[in-house]
Design a protein that fits this description.
The structure is a homodimer. Chain A is of the alpha/beta class. Chain A has helices at about 10-20, 25-30, 55-60, 80-85, 105-115, 125-140, 155-160, 180-190, 195-205, 215, 220-230, 250-260, 320-335, and strands at about 1-5, 35-40, 45, 75, 90-95, 120, 145, 170-175, 240-245, 265-275, 275-285, 300-305, 310-315. Chain A has a 7-stranded mixed β-sheet. Chain A has a 6-stranded mixed β-sheet with strand order 9-11-10-8-12-13. In chain A, about 55% of the residues are buried. Strand 13 of chain A pairs antiparallel with strand 13 of chain B, so a sheet runs across the interface.
Amino acid sequence: MRLAVVGFGGVGQAFVDLLLLKRSYLYNEGLDIKINYIMNSRGGVYSPTGIDCASLVEFSKANGDLSQYKNGGSKQITFESIMKNKDIDVLVEMTPTNKETGEPGMTYIERALEKGIHVITSNKGPVMLAYKRLNKLAAKNGVQLGIGCTSGGALPTVNGGLIDMAGAEILSIEGILNGTTNFILDEMAQKGVTYDDALKKAMDLGIAEADPTLDVEGWDTATKLLILTNILMNEEKTLADILVEGITGITPEQIEKAKREGKKYKLVGRTENRDGSLHMTVRPEKLDRGHPLYSIDGRHKAVRYVSDTLGDLTLSGGASGVTPAAASVLRDLINIYRGYRYSI
Amino acid sequence: MRLAVVGFGGVGQAFVDLLLLKRSYLYNEGLDIKINYIMNSRGGVYSPTGIDCASLVEFSKANGDLSQYKNGGSKQITFESIMKNKDIDVLVEMTPTNKETGEPGMTYIERALEKGIHVITSNKGPVMLAYKRLNKLAAKNGVQLGIGCTSGGALPTVNGGLIDMAGAEILSIEGILNGTTNFILDEMAQKGVTYDDALKKAMDLGIAEADPTLDVEGWDTATKLLILTNILMNEEKTLADILVEGITGITPEQIEKAKREGKKYKLVGRTENRDGSLHMTVRPEKLDRGHPLYSIDGRHKAVRYVSDTLGDLTLSGGASGVTPAAASVLRDLINIYRGYRYSI
């Protein structure tokens, strides 16, 4: 399979590293992967017979301007030139997330699908804004749209609901979908510290981002819940349909009280049918000891699906970081290679 | 897709019921399923245009001898006649398990694969004895072998390892793979009763079978562990490679002591690499509170995979009984319809 990697930040670089690491695995699978393009906002590299990735990775660690790369680097390599050359099978779309317009990823994904090119994206923007439309576009053009990375990375939330629950109707979704907030709540419960102290520790450890707003105010969880709900329950909801409350107001007293009751606070994203209509919430919930998400601690994530005929399924685990995220992109690539039709 | 259902016990009947129940789901999926044959040991029913399942299910509830069924029932319908007519796409093989020879399922599966017919089986015998060979036979003939039902039923242990971990190497498997023994151990811990009393309760509730030997002595767990190890780690192990110890010797004193230590006994099936060779065990293990399988109680099952690049994944849940088992067969059917190649 011939790939273009568009967007070359941490996950993109980890993806190229991973392909090098997994060379023998892929060979055994019968999967011959060539990367014909790697592009970022400053330019790109092109080789019609496959880029020498080991050499490029070394270069890119020292120099972010791919257009300076001696073997094929050029400012002239644009997305349109990729579309024009027609020498790729899969677009790996990894540009930064824009939750308002989805751009530039939205246009890249549309253009590729229209040209009959499979797309795998790590970009939440286009998926949360227009999954149904993009998926139909893929189906219409006989190609696949892989989005596993956008909702939990290594934790296979999408495959878990789509493939592992095939033939069953998903009645509700509940998940601990953000590792940072789960770490903070766990830290507060274990050490009895304040929210601010726990957040500071998460930042010191590199678990929380420099601006943790999207995590702690619940929007990262909401975005993932939105993606899962739209895909697995065939909805077209938006962020505005979700009641979102973060964890910034949680006090040590609340945590302590929950502990005395044998419970734990978790930031839960939840979609369920009540009184005939769908309710979507993200908020701190006090979970009982018997709840399947009760024991998900530290940075771990988990999601639980309740279905009609396959009972319930909880998936937990999934490592954090750029390599596991890249591995979730590779997972989609392999499953598409193995014939799975995400877009029907 | 045109099916033959061979073997028509509890799961087979539940499968046919499920297809009736799921008619609109399948229609929306674009999947038109016709059952051309239903066969058990006394004969069968054939309709070249699809059996009227509602009517047949009603008949079969009153009369186990399908050959007496007025619309197409006959003693002359044999497996060979199905092979000869060449009017099915999928064999749903549900004959009783024989762990020594795999027959009659083994021959049925081989014959169908050789004829270019997909096979989905709920029969552990052929899968534990010859998965690799059968899978190669499927690949050679361009068809798929679905075996999800044989290792955990509704709990998607096979898909979880094969699809959700695609691209990663599975380094170890550990699972609570038998609901009956998990119920018994949980009952002993919760109520402080003896093994015999807990077993009696499990039998009274219909959780344990009349002859619970295979469950309580660990062989059901061992069989599932064997299937998962061979498929997910590309091995050709046999039951003789597994060190198996059941739960019959566990005393209330041991359970009580574990409880005081904050631990729980669970019957764990485990495959792991130690000192460069693969070790497979089934035995009661004392799990710490932090272990991902610690909180799997009652009749629940779970499996945990540790991988190189996708971190670890624990799948838990999965309902018990004939309908969830039938739903796991339907799951394989849908995933094969969606193009997934289990056999490459």
